[in-house]
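One record is given unchanged without comment:
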Amino acid sequence: MMHPIERLRYVARASGGDQRMLVRETAGALRGLGFDPAGLVVACRRIVERHPTSGPMWWLCASVLAAADPYRCAASLADDLEADPTPDLLVEALPDDATVCVIGWPDLIGEALLRRGDSMVLAVDTDDGMGSNAFVRRLQRADVDAEIVPAAGLGAAVLASDLVVVEASAACPTELLAGVGSRALASVGYCSEVPVWAVVGRGRCLPSALFDAMARRQAEVRAPWDAPSEGVPLALCNWVVTPNGVLPTADTTLQPECPMSYELLRSSAM
């Protein structure tokens, strides 16, 4: 059996991947360590430093640090994330035989498209094929029509689609953090009057101060275009898909799903 410290190191090193798996592994490692409060704070800081674009990881760590029983809280939150109804709602809401334009390999959207089966998927490649190639191959193996679109063809792909779907890795009441190219995708859809849907799964809506901290860490790169994610104004989206349902953006107010944790705003001593 892997030692809890090794599990935390594994989670810290992991990049990409299914957010539910990463949260489950993190929750298990934190529970196994039995840290004192100070040690728990350091562990949570290091986790979010290694996963600066993962809303669910920030949600987990912020909630655990505020909990009276942090280890039971971690297990409960991992269960909540596994039971996220957002993909189910998206499966039901997608129009029949729709052409859907996405960026990269979005976890929740990808699950819904695989289960739906009747969509034509245009996956815009903005990361040199690191996610979109594997995503398209996975869809094709499941007999879902899918094509990779080069970044230069983003505008044409949107115009050829029935809807654009953007997945938030994190969100606040006014903005999403999503994969590189998502802002351009949503902007072209908005200006071209192609419906734009924002998918905000469980554990991705954070207090504004935590969201701003994530955004600042995105800016700590050599140049803005090297950031792994980018902000997308919620105003560019027509509809929002959350665990509470599928609603017009004008009728939706995104609420933080975790308490504010000022401990996560500071860096850990490495």
Residues 219 and 227 are 7 Å apart (CA to CA). The chain has a mean pLDDT of 88. The chain is about 45% helix and 15% strand.
